[in-house]
Amino acid sequence: MPTRQRILITSGPTREYLDPVRFLTNGSSGRMGAALAETVLERGELPVIVSGPVALVYPDGAEIHYVETTEQMFECCLQLFPDCNGIIGAAAPCDFRPEYFSEQKLTKSEENNSIVFRFVATPDILATLGQIKQQNQWIIGFALETKNGRDHALRKLKRKNCDFIVLNSPKSIDNETASFQIFNASGELCADLNCSKKTLAKEIFTLIDKYCIVTTKEMS
Ligand code: C5P
After folding, report:
1. Its pTM surpasses 0.90
2. Torsion of CA 28, 171, 162, 209, to 10 degrees
3. Does domain 6-97+119-211 have CATH number 3.50.20.20?
4. Which protein residues are within 6 Å of ligand 1, measured from CB?
5. Per-residue pLDDT tens for 126-175?
6. What is the pLDDT of residue 20?
7. DSSP assignment string, the chain
8. How far apart are CA 51 and CA 21, in angstroms?
9. How many A from CA of 211 to the centre of ligand 1?
């Protein structure tokens, strides 16, 4: 029976709907997820991608699960994670969703020239998987920060029980090349790179190979 690693990758943005046609989202392109999936395939392993809506095409050979909302991405990852060796959270899921969804399209009227929304937190995928991860599974997170990057990244690393966290900045959104710093679970800087997302993907797997326990899971 052939066995190869199954690597779960979250990718792209999510959408949180206000009404049937309007939604909250961000500019994540899915390029990091695609670069990771390509690298996983080159290594002869299986990328299992859970992706929000993206314009790009993921590489042939990847298992792809498309979702829209953070809640759907969360449910999908919760189901898939037990059969995977690890997860790389390259997605930029919306952290908040509107508290109420309007079944009807919101319209402006003469009496109504402003509108107030209340947002509630969505589930944190990596933090939840971080609580249930087994000893032979690993978690890699990303932290996109605008200030005090290192401090915020290290806090997320701990809270989400990650093995490594990749710090980057808004400049990496929808860009092929950017600056990345990778910290290990002890908070030590392991790599400081200015490179393409593909090179970063390879570096991430170099660290996984070196430091994370790897067992093969049978492909379904
Ligand atoms: O949004 P935040 O800065 O906390 O994202 C850091 C990491 O957590 C990223 O790897 C992202 O994919 C992941 N994340 C998640 N579930 C969320 C929000 C973020 O897994 N709801």
Report:
1. yes
2. 100
3. no
4. 10, 70, 89, 91, 93, 95, 122, 124-126, 141-143, 156, 160
5. 999 999 999 999 999 999 999 999 999 999 999 999 999 999 988 888 78
6. 97
7. --B--EEEEEESB--EESSSS-EE-----SHHHHHHHHHHHHTT-EEEEEE-S-SS-PPTT-EEEE--SHHHHHHHHHHHGGGSSEEEE--B--SEEESS--SSPP---SS-------EEEPP-HHHHHHHH--TT-EEEEEEE-SSSHHHHHHHHHHHTT-SEEEEE-GGGTT-SEEEEEEEETTS-EEEEEEEEHHHHHHHHHHHHHHHS-----B--
8. 20
9. 22
Q: 89 alpha carbon to ligand 1 midpoint, in Å?
A: 7
Smallest CA separation from ligand 1 atom 6, residue? 143
Domain boundaries, the chain: 6-97+119-211
Mean pLDDT of 60-77: 98
Tokens of 177: 């090349």
143 Cα to the center of ligand 1, angstroms: 7
Q: How far away, in angstroms, is 41 Cα from ligand 1 center?
A: 24
